[in-house]
Amino acid sequence: MTGIRIGLALSGGGFRAVAFGLGALRALHDRDLLSSVSVVSGISGGAILSALWAYGSKEFDEFDLSTRKLLRKGMQQELMLRAFNPRSAARSLASAARAAAAGHPRAFSRTEALVAVLAARGLDRPLSTVAHSDLSVILSATDLSNGNAVRFGSQVSSSSPLGRITDLVSVADAAAASAAFPLLLPPLVREYEFERSDGSRHTARIAMTDGGVYDNLGVTPLLPGRSRQFTSHVYDLDALIVVDAGRGRYDRKPATQWLNRTKQTFEISHGRVQDGTRSRLHAVSGLPLVHVYLGSSDARLPAIPDLIPRDPISAYGTNFSAMPARALEGLSVRAEQITRALVNDYL
């Protein structure tokens, strides 16, 4: 399809989001819509998938194969080896001691291992070096200092309270900052030079955590009605496709241990924020919208032959451990099926 400018948002959700998003991309490629995507916005797991697609092979089959290999192998073991080797462990402890004495976040942590893992997969390159022509990329993290989003982009990287980042930012840094799940990984700390709208420049150190804390769907920078007076990320689009790896409504057994209670409380609060974003998304008028939602009730979807049922694949975890073939197949095929059905109806 030519002449249409599509904004594509890939949500957070660890490897569950990567596998589900991969299936959606596969369906868009098959329908010749992927070439019409002019902006891709990724969060957390969706940021990793966005980076692998936007900066990887131009041949979709090669990208598909390499992403499936990554999911099947996982990153957990490699992260452990890189984070806890003697040199990294010593550096992390020394950084933690200096940070405690100075009262600021540590400059080096085990999240640097995630940067290294992503860099080893070809993402140690500037954000401007997108493999696909006429494609803009946005990878978002959350700044713990001010509670705002940090939008790393192939065209511009910025934070609304601080200004435009003038330093060169690597794809690996941006994706790792976006995917630094706060219950498992410390914030990624970087010092950048920022330029304000009046041309003045200043340096700030920012501590960045998972972009999903701010907006887990990644759709905010793609919404219509945004003003360049307040943000550098404004895009003129004809349609929105939002790939949402949220698991939907489910019953949970109340946790009894404090760590599990903390995790469960975080998940509930996080889910409420996501529900609010979904409501806002469906209130958008003037643009065709395709919302490919893992958690959609099977009964509420269009009639889809041999639909992969939501349960139990929606319960798959959001970590980076090796993914069983059955889970990968279930998540990616369900996304393909839903994407094809909704594209037929709405685009």
Shape: globular
Order of helices and strands: EHEHHHHHEEEEHEEHEHEH
Distance between the termini: 10 Å
Rounded average pLDDT: 88
Total beta strands: 10
| Helix percentage | 25-40%
What's the helix count? 10
Give start-end ranges of low-pLDDT stretches. Answer: none
Class by alpha and beta content: alpha/beta
The biggest beta sheet, please? 10 strands, mixed
**Proportion of residues in β-strands:** 15-25%
C-alpha-based Rg, rounded: 19 Å
Brief overview:
By secondary structure, the protein is an alpha/beta fold.
Describe it.
The protein is of the alpha/beta class and 347 residues long. Helix 1 (14-30) packs antiparallel against helix 3 (60-73), helix 2 (45-54) packs antiparallel against helix 7 and helix 4 packs across helix 6 (111-123). The protein has helices at residues 14-30, 45-54, 60-73, 76-83, 86-102, 111-123, 171-178, 212-215, 258-282, 325-346, and strands at 6-10, 37-43, 136-143, 149-153, 158-159, 163-165, 188-195, 201-209, 239-244, 289-293. Strands 1, 2, 3, 4, 5, 6, 7, 8, 9 and 10 form a 10-stranded mixed sheet that branches. 40% of the residues lie in helices and 17% in strands. Strand 3 (136-143) and strand 4 (149-153) form a beta hairpin. The protein is built from 10 helices and 10 strands.
What topology emerges from the helices and strands here?
Elements: E1 6-10, H1 14-30, E2 37-43, H2 45-54, H3 60-73, H4 76-83, H5 86-102, H6 111-123, E3 136-143, E4 149-153, E5 158-159, E6 163-165, H7 171-178, E7 188-195, E8 201-209, H8 212-215, E9 239-244, H9 258-282, E10 289-293, H10 325-346
Parallel strand pairs: 1-2, 1-9, 2-3, 9-10
Antiparallel strand pairs: 3-4, 3-8, 5-6, 6-7, 7-8
Helix pairs in contact: 1-2, 1-3, 1-10, 2-7, 4-6, 6-7
